[in-house]
Write a structure and sequence with these properties.
Layout lengths: L1 H18 L40 H13 L7 H9 L7 H11 L2 H11 L9 H18 L1 E4 L5 E8 L2 E10 L2 E8 L3 E6 L4 E6 L3 E8 L5 E8 L7 E7 L2
Parallel strand pairs: 1-9
Antiparallel strand pairs: 2-3, 3-4, 4-7, 5-6, 5-8, 8-9
């Protein structure tokens, strides 16, 4: 009887979930969270990319692709070379050795400083493959830096801003003892979701203003913050928040 009862219970639970899917505490109804940014829907986020200090006139469609890929990268914030390869590999799918080589160079701050002036004289459309890879990785690095916040006991707070078509988005992360607090000043109505490995918090508002989230944390933890604006058609901007040792 026991196996039969368990089978019936599982079937009933599946039916209940299919009929009434569970919601996060901040959700009022079913929402579709996309895995990737779509070019048209993501346009609200693209204004910021035009202000990146990247040489070579990287085209807008390449920057949009990089913004999408940078938010999908799973590598740790400290794995700079690996992150750069993951960010640009869809643009250069048949160049694994070139990507690894150039990533090793771009990951070095000294290279970025020395090559910026040299690459400023290069036009992306007419550049060699290696130069295009370098320009794309420099742009990706700028995007990573803009979407990353690192806090610690010694440096408990960091703020990032992102220019949108609706105005300036401001995000501040603060680490206090064993808790992480994130404040997002929204240029328009929207929502924020903060996640860790075993906990999620979310909040929303219909007008411009501040949203505040808190989660338990610890040194070495990596959190993801997804910011959605009403005009973004469900396409979030994703930040990584790292708690340094």
């Amino acid at each position: 009887m026991q196996p039969h009862f368990e089978a019936l219970l599982k079937r009933r639970l599946r039916q209940e979930i299919a009929h009434r899917p569970p919601l996060f505490p901040w959700e009022k109804g079913l929402q579709d969270y996309p895995d990737a940014l779509q070019a048209g829907a993501a346009s609200i986020w693209l204004d910021h990319l035009k202000n990146l200090s990247v040489p070579g006139g990287v085209p807008d469609d390449v920057l949009a692709n990089l913004l999408n890929q940078c938010q999908q990268v799973t590598a740790d914030l400290r794995q700079t070379g690996r992150r750069l390869v993951e960010a640009v590999e869809t643009l250069f799918p048949a160049q694994p050795q070139t990507l690894e080589y150039v990533a090793g160079l771009v990951a070095r701050p000294a290279y970025r400083s020395a090559q910026t002036q040299t690459l400023a004289q290069v036009d992306y459309a007419n550049a060699s493959t290696q130069q295009q890879v370098a320009l794309a990785m420099l742009a990706a690095q700028s995007i990573f830096e803009a979407l990353s916040l690192t806090v610690s006991e010694a440096n408990p707070s960091q703020e990032q801003t992102w220019l949108t078509t609706a105005g300036l988005l401001r995000v501040q992360a603060t680490c206090s003892e064993s808790h992480l607090e994130v404040r997002a000043v929204m240029p328009m109505g929207g929502s924020v979701v903060l996640t860790s490995l075993d906990e999620t918090a979310g909040s929303e508002r219909s007008t411009p203003g501040e949203l505040v989230l808190r989660l338990a944390t610890h040194p070495g933890a990596l959190h993801r913050l997804d910011v959605s604006l009403a005009q973004a058609q469900g396409q979030p901007l994703s930040f990584q928040v790292m708690i340094a040792d």
